[in-house]
Design brief:
The protein is mainly beta and 221 residues long. The chain folds into 2 domains: 167 residues, Elongation Factor Tu (Ef-tu), domain 3 (Beta Barrel), CATH 2.40.30; 42 residues, no CATH class. Helix content is 10%, strand content 39%. The strands form 3 sheets. A 6-stranded antiparallel barrel has the order 1-2-11-10-7-12. Strand 10 and strand 11 form a beta hairpin. The chain is extended and about 70 Å long.
């Protein structure tokens, strides 16, 4: 399995065996139920359909009720596909937990960033702004954004005030510091997108082989 669904709990800090201070993000991963699979023969790609977080039957539509009833699985709040390179060996009804990861693995975490609403250019694009003096009359305004006579328009891509945040982002190559199989909590080094309680997708890092462990890295050094 290459990935799993989870929920962001928040950030904390721990000390490793060597006494180093490490900021980590706690992610409640799984348990996820396998709702189906996708194969190259039928769908043209390989994937596993995962369901996360139980929800009341009143919260799903009739088609979903029939689907979950046929699978003999309780309705799930989140249903998402996780792509795989090889043909999946899982079957509907299987459960996937945090134990697919180990200490020293590297993961890519995908989530939706915290929404900031409508923001000005200084916060959104880190503009310097104008002089701070009382007589300046120009502090946080956009200022000139193009010539008047030629080309008589504003070029596309011009940084301006607008909506900030609430977009999909992926943080790559985060190291797994600890895996708590009993509580289903994954501790990764650094921060991840989203607010507390937001949905996250945790996958093996594309730029790091899944079999690479912290002990292997130490041996190489």
């Amino acid at each position: 399995m290459t990935g799993i669904l989870g929920k962001k709990i928040g950030m904390t800090s721990i000390f490793d065996q060597e006494g180093r201070f490490i900021p980590v993000t706690l992610i409640e991963t799984g348990p996820c139920s396998v709702l189906g699979t996708r194969t190259k023969e039928k769908a043209g790609y390989c994937a596993v359909v995962l369901g996360y977080k139980d929800v009341k039957e009143e919260k799903v539509n009739k088609a979903q009720k029939k689907w979950f009833k046929k699978l003999k699985i309780s309705p799930k709040k989140v249903v998402k596909e996780i792509r795989m390179d090889d043909e999946p060996t899982y079957k509907a009804g299987d459960t996937i937990g945090v134990n697919i990861f180990k200490n020293g693995d590297y993961v890519d975490v995908t989530g939706v960033t915290i929404g900031k609403g409508f923001q000005g250019g200084i916060k959104r694009w880190n503009w310097h702004g104008g002089d701070k003096g009382h007589g300046s009359m120009f502090h946080r305004a956009p200022g000139s954004i193009g010539a008047s006579s030629f080309p008589s328009r504003v070029f596309k891509g011009q940084h301006l005030p607008g909506h900030m945040g609430n977009i999909k982002r992926t943080i790559q190559n985060l190291e797994v510091i600890a895996v708590d199989e009993k509580k289903g909590i994954l501790s990764v080094k650094g921060g991840v997108p989203g607010h507390k309680g937001s949905l996250l997708v945790v996958r093996y890092a594309k730029k790091r082989p899944p079999k690479e462990r912290r002990e292997d890295v130490k041996d190489k050094s």
